[in-house]
């Protein structure tokens, strides 16, 4: 596996897809980085020489995108700020509920966790 931005990227995939495993690198950034690194035909990672890998790493550094640890830290600091100032969104983060206006009466299972049975609740049937 090749190491790019501190992340082992998959060898058997094409470069453009493979570098998207780096946090903060999506399809558009990946395409721009591969073009800047001058890798013709979007080869698989295992076919790259060490010199081409170094060009890829350099192009990713120069891309100006905030990636990996820096991006994770920025996101965490933004959430922490919302919690500290006591905003509505901060309260939603603190309680582990959806912060972007989704309904929670139904359809919030991944955020709210598993259903809990309520004792002696009768099912209304016909």
Descriptive report:
The chain folds into 2 domains: 61 residues, Helicase, Ruva Protein, domain 3, CATH 1.10.8.50; 39 residues, Irregular (30s ribosomal protein s13, domain 2). With 126 residues, it is mostly helical. The model has no long low-confidence stretch (mean pLDDT 86). The N and C termini lie far apart (60 Å). The chain has a two-stranded antiparallel ribbon with strand order 1-2. Helices cover 45% and strands 5% of the residues.
Give the helices and strands, then pairings.
Layout: E1 2-4, E2 7-9, H1 15-18, H2 27-36, H3 50-62, H4 68-85, H5 88-95, H6 109-112
Global Rg: 22 Å
Which whole number gives the mean pLDDT? Answer: 86
Helical percentage: 40-55%
Structural class: mainly alpha
Oligomer: single chain
Record field, number of beta strands: 2
Query: Helix and strand string, N-terminal first?
Result: EEHHHHHH
CATH class of the largest domain: Mainly Alpha
| Number of separate structural domains | 2
Relevant terms:
mainly alpha, 30s ribosomal protein s13, domain 2, elongated, 126 residues
Question: What's a quick, concise take on this entry?
Answer:
It is built from six helices and two strands, in the order E-E-H-H-H-H-H-H. By secondary structure, it is mainly alpha-helical.
């Amino acid at each position: 596996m090749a190491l790019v931005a501190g992340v082992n990227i998959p060898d058997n995939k094409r470069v453009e897809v493979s570098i998207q495993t780096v946090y903060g690198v999506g399809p558009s950034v990946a395409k721009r980085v591969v073009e800047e690194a001058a890798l013709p035909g979007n080869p698989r990672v295992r076919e790259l020489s060490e010199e081409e890998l170094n060009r890829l790493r350099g192009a990713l550094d120069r891309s100006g995108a905030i990636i990996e640890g820096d991006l994770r830290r920025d996101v965490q600091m933004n959430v922490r700020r919302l919690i500290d100032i006591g905003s509505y969104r901060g309260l939603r983060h603190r309680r582990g509920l959806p912060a972007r206006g989704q309904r929670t009466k139904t359809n919030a299972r991944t955020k709210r966790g598993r259903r809990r049975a309520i004792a002696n609740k009768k099912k209304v049937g016909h």
